[in-house]
Amino acid sequence: MSSVISHRFGLVFLAITLLTFLAASSAPTPLYHLYQEGLHFSSGTLTLIFGVYALSLLAALLTVGSLSDHLGRKPVIFVALVLEMAAMLLFINADSVAWLIAARTLQGFATGMATAVLGAALLDIDRQQGPLVNSITPLLGMACGAMGSSLLVEFAPLPTQLIYWTLLALLVLQGLLVWRLPESVSPVPGALASLRPTLHVPPQARRALWLSLPVDVAVWAVGGFYLSLAPSLVRAVTGSTSNLIGGGLVAVLTLSGALMIFSVRKHAADKVLRLGASLLAVGVALILGATHMGSLPLFFLATLVAGSGFGAGFLGALRSVVPLALPHERAGLMSAFYVLSYLAFCLPTLLAGNLTRSFGLIATTDGYGAVLIVLALGALIGLILQDAARIRATSGG
After folding, report:
1. Which of 26, 79, 173, 263 has its CA 20 to 30 A from that of 357?
2. Where do the structural domains in the chain lie, given as residue ranges?
3. What pLDDT sits at residue 354?
C-alpha cells in the first residue's frame, strides 16, 4: 500500500511541478502591454525579451538536459525550482528592461532544466502514464498561466506582481516536497562531460524521431503563432479590442489539445500521429478562412480543430520516440526532443514577425499557414506510405 501511495504522490507531484513551470512561462504574456506602457520600450525590445527566454531555454536543454542521468533526478529538480524562484523575485521587482531581460533569461534556463528532468522522472515513475502526462501537462500549464495572469490583471490588485507571488508560493512548497520523492536514478560518472552541448538521441530511437518530426514541428509552430501573432491577427481582421479574446484563443488551443490527448491516450502512436496531422491541416485551413472572412466564431472553431491536431500530433510524436530509450538515456532524449520542439515553437514565429514588416500581417499569415498545411499533409502521406510498406513486408508481398 505504501508503494502505491508513493507512486501516486510522485506522479501527481511531478505533474503539478511541470505544470507550474509551464504556467510561469506564459504568465508574463498578458503583462507585456503594461510593461511597455510603464517602461516605454518598443516592440523590438519586446521581441528581444521573448528571444532571450527561448535562447536560454534551449541553452539549458543542450547543456544540463541530461545532467540528472548522472546526478539523480531530485537534486536537479531542486536546483531548477530555486532558479525559477529567483526569476519570480526578479519579475516582482522588475522596474526596467534590464530586469525583465534578466528575469526571462533566468526563467528560460530554469524551465529548460525542469522540462528535461521532470519529463525523464515521469517516465521513470510510470512508463505507461509518463508520456501522457508529459504531453498533456505543458498544454494545461500554458492555458493556466495565460488565463490566470489575464484574470488577475483584469480583476485583482498588483497587476504586475500578484501572479508572480502566487507562483513563488507554489515553487517554495514544491522545493520542500521534492525531497520526499524516491530517487529513480543511481548516480553515475560523467556529469561534467554531459554539460558539453549535444543532442543525444539513442540509435534505437532515431528512425522514430525522424518519422514523427514533421508533425511535431508543425504543431509547435502553430503554438508559437498563437502565443505571438494570433491576438494581433484577430484584432486586425475582426476589429475586436478585448484583451481576453487573445487569451481565450490560447486557452481553447491548449485545452482542446489536452482533451484530445486524453481521448486518444490508449490508441497506437502511429494512428494518433496520422490523426494529428489531418486535424492540423484542416484547422490551419479554417484559420486562413477565418482571417479572410473576419469571423470571430470561425476563429474559435478553427482553433478548436487546430488545438485537437496539436494535442494528437504532440502525443503521437512523444509516444513514438521516448519509450525507446533506456533509463539512463531518457533525460538526454527528452532534452533533444524538446530542443527540436522549442526550435519549431520559436524560429518560425520570429521569422514571421520579421516578415510582417515587409508583407503585412495577413499576407504573412497566409504564407505561414500554407507552409504548415504542406508540412502536415506531407507528414501524413509519409506515415501512410510507411504503414503500407509495413503491411506489404508483413504479408510477404
Report:
1. 26
2. 1-182, 202-397
3. 77
The CATH number that domain 1-182 falls under is 1.20.1250.20
Binning the chain into helix, strand and coil, the percentages to the nearest 5 are 85, 0, 15
Is the dihedral angle over the CA atoms 128, 129, 130, 136 positive or is it negative?
positive
Q: Which three cell numbers stand for residue 134?
A: 508529459
Residue 376, number of CB atoms within 10 A of its CB: 29
CATH 1.10.10.60 fits 202-397, yes or no: no
* Single pTM value for the model: 0.80
pLDDT digits (tens, 9 = 90+) for 52-79: 888 888 888 888 877 777 777 888 899 9
356 burial via Cβ count (<10 Å: 0-12, 13-18, 19+): middle
DSSP label at 96? S
Same fold, 1-182 and 202-397: yes
Give CA–CA dist 183/205, Å, rounded: 25
> Would you give the distance in Å from CA 303 to the centre of its chain?
17
Q: For 301-354, how does the pLDDT look when each residue is reduced to its tens digit (9 = 90+)?
A: 999 999 999 999 988 888 888 777 777 777 677 777 878 888 888 888 778 877
As given in the structure block, the three cell numbers for residue 317 are 510524436
Tell which residue, 148, 84, 146, has the closest CA to residue 111: 84
Residue 96 pLDDT > 80: yes
Residue with cell 520526499: 180
Residue indicated by cell numbers 532558479 = 83
Characterize 135-174 residue by residue with b for buried, 16 or more Cβ atoms within 10 angstroms of its Cβ, and e for exposed. Answer: bbbbbbbbbbbbbbbbebbeeeeeebbebbebbbebbeeb
- With bands split at pLDDT 50, 70 and 90, how would you rate the model's confidence at 158? confident
